[in-house]
Amino acid sequence: MTASVAFISHADCGRHDTGWNHPEHVGRLRAIPRALRNEFDLYEALQHLEGRHATPDELALAHEPSYLKVVEALARQGGGRLDADTIESEGSWDAATAGAGCVLDAVDLSLSGKAVRSFSAVRPPGHHALRASGMGFCLFGNIAIAAHYARRNKGLDRVLIVDWDVHHGNGTQALVEQDPDIRFVSMHQWPWYPGTGPADDRGPHDNVWNVPMPAARPREEYVSAFLTAVDTASAGFTPDLVFISAGFDSLAGDPLGGFTLEMDDVSRLTREMVSRAAQWCGGRVVSALEGGYVPERLGEAAVAHMRALR
Ligand SMILES: [Zn+2]
What we know:
Blueprint: E1 5-9, H1 27-36, H2 40-45, E2 47-50, H3 56-59, H4 65-76, E3 79-83, E4 86-89, H5 92-112, E5 117-120, H6 142-153, E6 159-163, H7 170-176, E7 182-189, E8 208-213, H8 219-233, E9 241-246, H9 263-281, E10 285-289, H10 295-309
Parallel strand pairs: 1-2, 1-5, 5-10, 6-7, 6-9, 7-8, 9-10
Antiparallel strand pairs: 3-4
């Protein structure tokens, strides 16, 4: 039996205008519905939902209120730079609050059973954002905010976050590692941007599993290293909800990474997480887009991912 899966997005995510020369441009998101249109059965089977904007109180589950004001003020004044590669435009506050809000809606939908699993196609991405600063194209830690929301606002006892983006989810780690009831698994290229995430960085409560991997290894090595880490992280820890930081820059050919994954691996990793979630927590999976910088590949991967979420 297939579950009810939601495809969640928000028109405002397209208003984060980084320019076409920036790798994290709006064409990335546009590629997803374009790819989905060719998959009529999947398109028809998904719930197509527009998310909401996260409120400042919700964003403050993971970020300093003073930083939220900085992000909002920079957008209101027409945009600018938060760091060398993290840009804001006039629409970035609305985009980033929508991106975070989509993932919060995904938690609500999963817990209510309306959409037990979902994929949120959002930008800017989130997993490099820190408590009081943007970083690496990311403004707010969409997944980290949603994990705290699930724990504190929705009363879940335990959550697991897995991150297969080619870059270390340093922001997610920083934003969740103080909570021992959130466990975090990140597989990432090493050495590579942002330079964090060695295997012996287990977080202050040993609740972090970093899986640094060299570039250009056979695909299966990445899949098996990732799943081994997931199984180690979940030994004796039954999550009530599983989050996926779905970065598709771990696919072969991405300009910002050197991993070798193919569409079949996206399907496999997704199915493996769905089957574990089925055993742990009624199949509840909340997935959100992180990286992925070849738009056509990103669109195809999102389709494979959503197909495997069903
Ligand atoms: Zn990435």
